[in-house]
Amino acid sequence: MNKIHNPQPTTYVPVIGLEVHVELKTKSKMFCGCSADYFGKAPNTHVCPICLGLPGALPVPNKKAIEWCVMIGLALNCEIPLFSKFDRKNYFYPDLPKGYQISQYDQPFCINGNIQLSSGKKIKIRRVHMEEDTAKLAHQFKSQISRLAGASAKRANLKSQNAEEGYSLIDFNRSGVPLVEIVTGPDFESGVEVKEYLQKLQQIVRYLDVSSADMEKGEMRLEPNISLRIKNQKSKIKNKELPSYKVEVKNINSFRFVEKAIDYEIKRQTEVLEKGETPIQETRGWDEDKQKTVTQRAKEEAQDYRYFPEPDIPPIRLSESQILNLKSQMPELPDTKLARFIKEYELSNNHSEVLTRDKKMADFFEEAVRIGEKYNLSAKQIANHVINKKINLNITLAADVISWIVEGLNFSVVEDEILGKTIRIVLEENQKAVEDYKSGKSQVIGFLLGKVKQQFPKADVSQIRTALEKHLK
Question: Of 114, 304, 338, 358, whose CA is between 20 and 30 Å from 352?
Fold first, then answer.
């Protein structure tokens, strides 16, 4: 009997790129003077003719937003062109009152950057550009408004037909809020890599203090583009063939959800490809209840948006001195701070990572270290206490932490002046021991330390030793 040959299944490699939208926390919106602090406010109370897209209203760019966009680009190792411009991105959707969005197309503020993952792999940042956010839609479906039947429907002035079909409401408070879009190359091959990148990106914008990047409030929105290529297939990027399609999953607001959406898409697209078909190029959304992505609309290409230069805003020209000035305002960034903590404080990589995860925590720790020097506390002692006790930074002072550590060690701290006076007396009374120490017999310090300790039984030995060594020099 001849054996039936079963061909090996085709191995597919994910090709994933990311678009991340980050809302900046400027006081006013991108092109008007309305307050950008819209979250939780009554609908349509932070609006004006400009962000409502009324005819004749002219946009005026927010200088601070542009500067912050450039700072994000600098933090992501981008080149900063000296000439940029705004463009109109034309499409019709109810949340876009003008029928177009002011964005950037071919000449953004920042290009050609990168972020390095813990594996050493570099993710290319193609562009960091500035645009305005859209309004927010609130969809009311049948199941949500079925309770409004009868008397409730009358009170809400709803006709029975509307209660059957559902409706959508628009809140323009978010319309025009400054939005930075960060676009990567198709360099990711797993949801795990995507999650690490996003965590690093969120950490960077928080260190810069340009955005809270709170995903529950929609301040950081994640949009992966996912497709699959056949393993070892040759092509344009890194000698590997890019697929002929891509699927974008829009507006995800959780690291966990984006990882789930990517894993689901890899599985779904694999099944389609194994049938000999090509997945449809489309935009999908993540349905957390169903744990799957769902079709939203066909995916647009750049030409579909009919980009052209924004006629109401002149081109933006930056100088080298302006860019250098922005660089000088930037804080120490997370990766640099992590490396410094490991070297300067002799902390483990794990402890350093926890302490530098948040800038507020890192600053708190360094302040505690400065205070702790007076009590001869090591950075390791302080790091262990801060991490293990899970200190609440909102209600705790660095000085409090040092007090707790000192009390926990069950020793008292002697004032420097009193300790110094006692040490001078002990040294005068024990000249032979002093001479022996200076001639190289370092063990003699133990004898002198004991003499001083007799005067301060509960004092910290390390405090006395440090003071003794200073007086013996």
Answer: 114
